[in-house]
Specification:
single chain, about 270 residues, alpha/beta, Rossmann fold, 2 domains, four-stranded antiparallel β-sheet, globular, disordered N terminus
Length: about 270
């Protein structure tokens, strides 16, 4: 039995167990758990206030949990700040994207991580290697089929879908094995949303593991392999997308369909 479990764990890119986080009397997370396999898209869903955002912040190093454990590739990790998660290979793309409008695509991709010149004197003067950065950025964007006319174009002139795809592609350029996407298609039209969803599938094809937070159940079932439902700070169910319908996911979120883990509202006495 132990050998079987070890084999299953060996396929996990990330495992978060019994994560708890309190803010005074408010319990944001209560023994929340999530597993992410290698090369998998895991949907993370739940109503507003379910704990999704707090769990994402824990996994990205922005929030330190009160209790619980996190493993990356089977190795225990402790995130005290966002740079710890980045060092572990986790990149988070938030809704605001953190892109600078006045900079070009390549400048945004390498923002804060500029490649310095190979010339010793120029490197000492912190002169960047523009040619190397443009070449590598162009290679990754072409590999992921991101429809940007040029890596030198200003982000300000890009569509919402192009901006989102640029932010996601940046994660692959930096060799991230795990990418967390927070509502990547929010405020996008149908065509641009499909562009982003196609890119997520290509990330999976490159062996990247993705956690996708979304309120759009129709989109989720087209791109995710599994999904985890959160309610009142708990992860209450994990299902294979192939085994459910969007209506099933909504039922688990609202409590209309029973889950594996009870929440306080499930056990509360009924008042007549």
């Amino acid at each position: 039995m132990e050998r079987v479990e070890a084999s299953a764990d060996a396929d996990l890119a990330l495992q978060a167990r019994n994560i708890t986080r309190r803010y005074g009397a408010v319990v944001a997370l209560a023994d929340a758990s999530l597993s992410l396999r290698r090369g998998e898209v895991m949907g993370l869903v739940g109503d507003n206030g379910a704990g999704k955002s707090t769990l994402l912040k824990v996994l990205s190093g922005a929030v330190v949990p009160d209790t619980g454990t996190i493993e990356v590739d089977g190795q225990p990790v402790s995130f005290r700040k966002p740079s710890d998660a980045l060092s572990a290979g986790i990149e988070t793309v938030y809704q605001d994207l953190a892109l600078v409008d006045t900079m070009s695509a390549v400048q945004n991709v390498y923002l804060g991580r500029e490649v310095l010149s190979k010339n010793a004197v120029l490197r000492f003067l912190d002169v960047v290697n523009d040619r190397a950065m443009r070449s590598e950025a162009r290679k990754v964007l072409q590999e992921l089929q991101v429809g940007i006319q040029s890596v030198n174009v200003s982000v300000k002139g890009m569509s919402g879908g192009q901006r989102q795809c640029l932010a996601i592609a940046r994660a692959l350029l930096w060799g991230r094995r795990i990418v967390i996407l927070d509502e990547p298609t929010a405020a996008l039209g149908v065509r641009e949303s499909q562009q982003v969803l196609d890119l997520i599938k290509r990330l999976r094809d490159h062996g990247v593991s993705v956690i996708l937070v979304s309120h759009n159940m129709q989109q989720l079932v087209t791109v995710a392999d599994r999904f985890t439902v959160m309610r009142l700070g708990r992860s209450i169910a994990t299902r294979n997308v192939a085994d459910v319908t969007p209506e099933t996911i909504v039922g688990l979120i609202t409590g209309a369909i029973p889950a594996e883990v009870e929440t306080p509202e499930d056990t509360a006495p009924v008042v007549h």
